User: Which sequence fits this backbone?
């Protein structure tokens, strides 16, 4: 497999969310708007790439038996870095993502890539893999966030898009359900169905 | 009254799976059959309550006095991971039948965000130890109710003629959405 395929596989073919169903907790929880989805996706990408780099570097030093706990410590360190950096520079996003920032540590996607890819491959492939899978995850979260924000609040990235009829004082009549909890499940269900349809053809 | 409010809120109003999206992986993964859903609930309840107690004590007696709160994420995940290992070893020795019933689910629990999530939320909500335990029990019951209901629904879904593109995960997610909608009815209860 060349590096280009290695990079692009994360977007559609092996997409973490739409195909492998990994990391569903943050996917459903933070995508009430496109910005939150993108922020979460990029935070996870950073952790994924950095963890892949370190795991690829130290894979020969770690005894087989304590492999998983060591990976968890490496991942948790980078999650702490993201957590503190975001709290310092992007406090509003940090507030919106809340508990799901420290929970990146239990995102099966990150540990899954460290175990399945970075511990068996060299550093360059591991970086490319981390970037591809991470940006694929960010893409999925942003797409889901954009769909939910559009249907639920009539805007995407905070810019209002006039697809809904408006009331007399100009506020759009939206489907509020989609920014609430049930809308997350329903929107993701239909997105996966649509993507399955495209993959077959 | 306070305790009653915590437990109702954890089970119904802020249901951990359907409203807070913690523990979605086992919710989607092991809910195909009713019996596995019940087994998973048992394992989660057991680990969630004990892990909440241990992480709470570590937070209050180690992390806070020494001013090393920034180590929270690392220490909590390590505690939970090693704790799950320990539970597995102890159960194997002490109660083989219980180990038989819960054994296969235990390794899956380390990466179950519900455990870590409840531990973190207990600290965030400023609960004391007793309230934390009640909150953990309530959350575990909420997890059990959600996953058992969902497993029942999925067993019925298998018998239905679902449109081709929606078969499998998509229809399961949409059903979960409708279940979550039903739980929204409890909003404002406490």
Assistant:
């Amino acid at each position: 497999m060349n590096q280009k395929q290695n990079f692009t596989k994360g977007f559609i073919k092996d997409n973490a969310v739409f195909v492998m169903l990994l990391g569903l907790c943050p996917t459903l929880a933070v995508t009430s708007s496109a910005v939150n989805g993108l922020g979460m996706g990029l935070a996870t990408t950073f952790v994924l790439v950095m963890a892949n780099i370190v795991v690829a570097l130290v894979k020969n030093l770690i005894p087989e038996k304590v492999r998983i706990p060591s990976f968890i410590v490496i991942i948790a360190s980078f999650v702490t870095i993201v957590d503190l950096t975001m709290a310092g520079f992007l406090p509003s996003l940090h507030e919106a993502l809340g508990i799901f920032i420290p929970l990146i540590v239990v995102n099966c996607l990150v540990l899954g890539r460290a175990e399945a890819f970075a511990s068996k491959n060299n550093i360059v492939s591991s970086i490319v893999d981390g970037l591809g899978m991470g940006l694929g995850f960010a893409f999925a979260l942003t797409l889901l966030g954009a769909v939910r924000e559009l249907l639920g609040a009539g805007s995407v990235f905070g810019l209002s898009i006039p697809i809904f009829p408006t009331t007399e004082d100009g506020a759009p009549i939206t489907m509020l359900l989609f920014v609430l909890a049930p809308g997350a499940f329903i929107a993701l269900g239909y997105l996966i169905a649509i993507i399955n349809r495209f993959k077959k053809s | 009254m306070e305790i009653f409010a915590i437990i109702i809120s954890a089970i119904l109003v802020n249901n951990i799976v359907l409203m807070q999206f913690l523990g979605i992986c086992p919710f989607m993964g092991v809910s195909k059959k009713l019996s596995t859903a019940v087994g998973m609930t048992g394992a989660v309840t057991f680990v969630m309550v004990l892990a909440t107690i241990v992480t709470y004590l570590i937070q209050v007696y180690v992390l806070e006095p020494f001013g090393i709160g920034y180590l929270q994420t690392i220490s909590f995940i390590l505690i939970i991971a090693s704790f799950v290992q320990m539970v597995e070893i102890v159960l194997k020795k002490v109660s083989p039948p219980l180990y038989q019933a819960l054994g296969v689910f235990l390794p899956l629990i380390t990466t179950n965000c519900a455990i870590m999530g409840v531990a973190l939320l207990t600290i965030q909500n400023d609960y004391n130890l007793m309230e934390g335990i009640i909150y953990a029990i309530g959350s575990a019951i909420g997890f059990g109710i959600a996953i058992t209901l969902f497993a029942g629904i999925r067993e019925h879904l298998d018998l239905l003629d679902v449109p081709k593109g929606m078969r499998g995960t998509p229809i399961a997610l949409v059903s979960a959405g409708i279940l979550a909608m039903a739980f929204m009815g409890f909003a404002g209860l406490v």
Remarks:
- The longest strand of chain A covers residues 155-156.
- The helical segments of chain A are 3-8, 24-30, 34-58, 67-89, 91-97, 108-118, 123-153, 181-200.
- Chain A has a mean pLDDT of 87.
- The beta strands of chain A are 155-156, 159-160.
